[in-house]
Design a protein that fits this description.
Elements (H helix, E strand, L loop, with lengths): L2 H6 L4 E6 L3 H17 L2 E9 H7 L5 E3 L6 E3 L2 H26 L3 E8 L1 H8 L4 E6 L13 H6 L6 E5 L10 E4 L3 H17 L4 E5 L4 H17 L5 E4 L5 H11 L3 E5 L9 H8 L4 E4 L1
Parallel strand pairs: 1-2, 1-6, 2-5, 6-7, 8-9, 8-11, 9-10, 11-12
Antiparallel strand pairs: 3-4, 7-12
Helix pairs in contact: 2-4, 7-8, 9-10
């Protein structure tokens, strides 16, 4: 593993995109637990979306009253008050999480597009935590547009959560299908496994015996240098479907993958996230 790969394993902050939705608040709760176990700073990022505020200013824009259920004109002042109220609620939640878990937690409020503001705040040393589902009522349970965009950002480390991590003696799983990016994924997976006192499962791609033996030797040598070991499973295929099957069969606690993996070409990273329940962590 190169010095650059080791530096890439450093996590300075956990950054959580938060709004009024249940998935984003669940992600904040889970991130606070991660921050407590790893001694990492927690930052909540609340973005006031300019598109909503601009739409509210249009004379023909209407909204459905949350209690009356009737259509009414959108009032920019009312939207502003609602956003400020949401930010206060999130600040209060962060304050409680900070006290409960003895962590450093703060809130940043920005205005603009969610993805653009996230990219402006996040550095390669951060791990961004985002809820899996968006707010669409037409596609419940499907990957939200913000999460879909962020997992495609090559320089970022992103954890996508559907629900708080499964408890119990379930392994952290890592795909090691190529050396250098595989080492970065392996380092992140080992950090997660050690943080939660969990076992580690190494997933290898199906290939000729010489290639599989070489990948296994490289990974096990690196792990031995870290005083660690892993169970090894050779996948039945290199597709995202086979990855999802492996996670389900082993009841994995989390899955760590490199974006450069052949299994994640095109939109397959999003398909993988939609197919599994445990958190999926994408590393450069």
């Amino acid at each position: 593993m190169t010095d650059e790969a080791r530096r890439d394993d450093t996590i300075r902050r956990l950054v959580v995109l938060v709004d009024a939705s249940h998935p984003s608040r669940a992600a904040l709760e889970e991130a606070a637990k991660l921050a407590a176990r790893s001694g990492t700073e927690l930052l909540g990022l609340f973005v006031e979306e300019e598109d909503i505020l601009r739409s509210a200013a249009l004379p023909f824009t209407q909204e459905i009253g949350p209690t009356s259920g009737t259509l009414r004109p959108m009032d920019p002042a009312r939207i502003e008050r609602r956003l400020r109220g949401q930010a206060r609620d999130i600040q209060q939640l962060l304050r409680g999480l900070s006290e409960r878990h003895a962590i450093t937690a703060s809130l940043e409020v920005a205005r603009g597009g969610v993805v653009a503001q996230a990219l402006a705040y996040i550095t390669p040393e951060d791990l961004i935590v985002v809820g899996k589902t968006g707010g669409s009522v037409l596609r419940p349970g499907r990957l939200g547009s913000t999460a879909r965009h962020l997992i495609g950002e090559a320089s970022l480390r992103v954890m996508v959560l559907e629900e708080p991590g499964r408890q119990g003696e379930r392994p952290t799983m890592v795909l090691f299908d190529q050396p250098e990016p595989g080492y970065r994924a392996l380092a992140t997976a080992l950090r997660i496994a050690r943080r939660d006192s969990l076992s580690l499962t190494l997933l290898l791609p199906p290939a000729d015996p010489e290639t599989v033996d070489d990948l296994r030797r490289r990974a096990e040598t690196w792990l031995a240098d870290q005083g660690a070991e892993a169970d090894v499973q050779v996948l039945a295929g290199t597709s995202w479907e086979r990855l999802a099957q492996a996670v389900h069969s082993r009841e994995g606690r989390a899955l760590v993958v490199s974006r450069s993996s052949p299994a994640l070409t095109g939109d397959n990273g999003a398909r993988l996230v939609e197919a599994v329940i445990p958190p999926v962590v994408f590393v450069p």
